[in-house]
From TrEMBL:
<comment type="function">
    <text>Responsible for synthesis of pseudouridine from uracil.</text>
</comment>
<dbReference type="GO" id="GO:0160140">
    <property type="term" value="F:23S rRNA pseudouridine(1911/1915/1917) synthase activity"/>
</dbReference>
<dbReference type="InterPro" id="IPR020103">
    <property type="entry name" value="PsdUridine_synth_cat_dom_sf"/>
</dbReference>
<comment type="similarity">
    <text>Belongs to the pseudouridine synthase RluA family.</text>
</comment>
<protein>
    <recommendedName>
        <fullName>Pseudouridine synthase</fullName>
        <ecNumber>5.4.99.-</ecNumber>
    </recommendedName>
</protein>
<dbReference type="InterPro" id="IPR006145">
    <property type="entry name" value="PsdUridine_synth_RsuA/RluA"/>
</dbReference>
<feature type="region of interest" description="Disordered">
    <location>
        <begin position="178"/>
        <end position="197"/>
    </location>
</feature>
<keyword id="KW-0413">Isomerase</keyword>
<dbReference type="InterPro" id="IPR006225">
    <property type="entry name" value="PsdUridine_synth_RluC/D"/>
</dbReference>
<keyword id="KW-0694">RNA-binding</keyword>
<dbReference type="Pfam" id="PF00849">
    <property type="entry name" value="PseudoU_synth_2"/>
</dbReference>
<feature type="domain" description="Pseudouridine synthase RsuA/RluA-like">
    <location>
        <begin position="90"/>
        <end position="239"/>
    </location>
</feature>
<dbReference type="InterPro" id="IPR006224">
    <property type="entry name" value="PsdUridine_synth_RluA-like_CS"/>
</dbReference>
<dbReference type="InterPro" id="IPR050188">
    <property type="entry name" value="RluA_PseudoU_synthase"/>
</dbReference>
């Protein structure tokens, strides 16, 4: 049983190229996946016929790759509701809720987004393997992309490595940055005092976050962020580094020295049960169609409530 084929039509300027070159350079298929496709009866087809990848192609030829369907037998299906932003034969894009882990890990084998997605697919009689293209922290909400086959997963992963996947976040923070917009270029590594935490350190891994002040109030700000790298807890670490920790962030909270500011911080953190961080927008090129798609997730209720509270405090 196969997935729907990925199709590529040979344009006139590519006549005479090797099929192998088309697969690697035009369809962006990895050598590992090509080797796997060659082992299946209908893995690589040219004009409906199985051929060697050393053949030369002609203008108008139809190249198809077909992948055998896989199942997530290691994930227990559970009826866990989730919000779908987009779905087709190749992609599932969801608006992840706060408090849910993306994929089963040690100690968390059930109750994850993966458990819910696998149950949803099975209830529709569909067979896919759960392949998240990226991760969001357990308490971070927003756009999350799941690939339905290895080709799509590999293709989007390479877009992410090349920096062509545009990921945007919204955060509510204590205080406000000194500049209206800027960049936080701070290498990140594990905190030697606590391996669960990250910190900015000169010997860390390169990490760059772009930010823009979208709205400011007396006790906090709304910040738009764009990741130029993907380090663990990057936004949380970088915002704390510039003196604007995320509201509700218990791991990277900063306690001000003066009593008034300390009380203000504690009051806001008490009203926000998690770090106020939301993956609001993601843009990528669809691996099967070549179309650039952008997905949006509205601000979740808890952050919208906190935003309203900050606005009202300023008016008072």
């Amino acid at each position: 049983m196969y997935y729907e084929p990925i199709v590529y039509m040979i344009p006139p300027e590519e006549e005479g190229m090797l099929l192998k070159t088309i697969l690697q350079k035009r369809m962006n298929i990895s050598r590992k996946l090509i080797s796997k496709l060659k082992l299946t009866e209908q893995g690589i087809m040219l004009n409906g016929t199985r051929v060697y990848i050393s053949v030369k192609v002609k203008a108008g030829d139809r190249v198809e790759i077909r992948m055998e369907r896989e199942r997530s037998d290691d994930i227990l299906p559970e009826p866990i509701p989730f919000d779908i932003l987009y779905e087709d034969e190749h992609l599932l894009v969801v608006n992840k809720a706060a408090g849910i882990i993306v994929h089963p890990t040690h100690g968390h084998y059930t109750g994850t987004l993966a458990n819910g997605v696998v149950h949803y697919w099975q209830s529709k009689g569909e067979l896919f393997r759960f392949r998240p293209v990226h991760r969001l922290d357990q308490e971070t909400t927003g756009v999350l992309v799941v690939a339905k086959n290895p080709y799509v997963h590999q293709h989007i992963s390479e877009q992410m490595i090349a920096g062509t996947v545009d990921k945007r976040y919204t955060a509510l923070v204590h205080g406000r940055p000194e500049q209206q917009e800027g960049r936080v270029d701070g290498p990140i590594d594990r905190n030697p005092d606590d391996p669960h935490l990250r910190m900015v350190t000169p010997n860390g891994y390169p990490a760059l976050t772009l930010y823009k002040l979208e709205e400011a109030w007396d006790e906090g700000s709304r910040i738009g962020l764009k990741l130029e790298s993907g380090r663990t807890h990057q936004i949380r670490v970088h915002m704390t580094y510039i003196g604007c920790p995320l509201i509700g962030d218990k791991m990277y909270r900063v306690i001000p020295d003066d009593a008034a500011s300390r009380e203000q911080y504690e009051q806001l953190d008490a009203r926000m049960p998690r770090q106020a961080l939301h993956a609001s927008e993601l843009s990528l090129v669809h691996p099967a169609t070549g179309e650039r798609l952008t997905f949006y997730a509205p601000l979740p209720a808890d952050m919208a409530e906190m935003q309203g509270l900050l606005r009202n405090k300023m008016e008072d």
